[in-house]
Amino acid sequence: MERNNQPQPTVFVIFGASGDLAWRKLIPALYNLYLDDELPKRLAILGIGRKAISDEEFRAHLRDGVDQFSRRGKTEKKSWDEFAAHLNYLAGDLAEKQTGTALAEQLRQFDQTWGLEANRIFYLAIPPALAETVAGQLARLELCKDCRRDRLVVEKPFGHDLASARALDLTLTGMFSENQIYRIDHYLGKETVQNLLAFRFANALFEPIWDRRYIDHVQITVAETVGVGSRGGYYEHAGALRDMVQNHLLQILCLIAMESPVSFDADEIRNKKVDVLRAIHPIKPDKVHQYAVRGQYGKGQIGTQKTPGYRQEEGVAPDSSTETFAALRLFIDNWRWQGVPFYLRTGKCLADKVSQVSILFRPVPHQSFPASAVENWQPNRLVIRIQPEEGITLRIQAKQPGTRMVLAPVDMQFCYSDAFNTTAPEAYETLLLDVMRGDATLFMRADQVEKAWEVIAPVLESWTSVPAGDFPDYRPGSWGPEAAAALLTQDGRNWFEPVASSAKCGEQEDKE
Ligand code: BG6
Questions:
Q1: Helices and strands of the chain, counted as H and E runs
Q2: Is the pLDDT of residue 82 over 90?
Q3: Which of 190, 224, 246 to mutate to test the pocket of ligand 1 (most atoms within 8 A of CB)?
Q4: pTM for this model (two decimals)
Q5: Which listed residue, of 167, 170, 219, 455, carries a Cα 20 to 30 Å from 398's Cα?
């Protein structure tokens, strides 16, 4: 029997089970939940993929993924064998009738063996273009029809642009009810991203100064050192704007900018977030160059390793105009944020793997210290490190020890690893458990996804219609193209170079 707080008996079906996502993320997450005793006792994980492999081969492949990517490191035989007993594989293409019939039969058998109607989760770990076909089959076969028990998880990007996202939504909501559809954005499952809500709304300290009167601007950086690697085929049709900005970066922006929720009810939080997206000042098509910068990495060297340029990656056109770097300058038209720029940037092959939000406060209204005291003066800055070395740093001014009055910036630090002596679950662990529990708070609602597409639509259109003449335009291991710096210097500001990911919590924060 399941414990009170464990999910109900569940069949977890993964479409695209022989792919990368299941191997690197989904199964390691499910395995960790299993080790933490969070999963129901009556659990079946059924992978569906095109590769013709046996259950045993499937399990061995997944174990290899867990060994490499689990936060707990290598598996132990006993626990793995116990977990693996829940794993089954069905080879086939869901577009074909016989795969559907075989799936229906397997689901029926689980229910029969357990003597109940189990919850069913259908996880679409497949390219966006196939989502409609698979969902359509599920609907036709009536496998996902009970809106209390059956759920569909859809990976991002949700659609390819505003029109296709709307079309996909129309199809899905025509077949399933909204509360069955879980649109996943794994950033929302990250501890530090969730902590943004705790930080802002569980502390009275910051909320009174969280607006245009005290905040000068906000910077959101999500940087990666890796290139697109084997994902060129997918990335070529996505680019940084669709792959990262439309979802992860805009979600972070929403959490920074949203109004306080009345409750932690899923819809209340999502309403407040969608309000932010609705208030983002639309970028005029002829002004895109003033608000957005794109870039693409060329050939180079990181450390001693020679790296290919994006155009040399597998599955990428030799004259590709796909951006591997994107930066935006956004404004939010409401009382709280009028006139406060939000600068967002993300890219592959950058100098460091780091995600962080920097909130720059305005200078003091009157400088009473003598000029000699304030040579090193810097405005207050709050840095929220999403990864790595998760934590929060507040930069304040202090008097330097000595006989003279000289001010120097110092950092007050909160580090997750020091404060809580425990490892945080991976984002996918949190999110998969939430799906099993039927809690949609950390998932995106249809209107949120559409509004996010609306925000970037003018940029997408402009970049698609005019190929980039200067690509490749940044060096691997740098912080992106020079034009990204100009986006801030035109406003008299600079990007903060995030603290190196190798730095330990407690080291001085980023420099300008
Ligand atoms: C995914 C993108 O959503 O997020 C990838 O598709 C990207 O291109 C990844 O590498 C980054 O996630 P994380 O959790 O490693 O920051």
A1: 17, 16
A2: yes
A3: 224
A4: 0.91
A5: 219
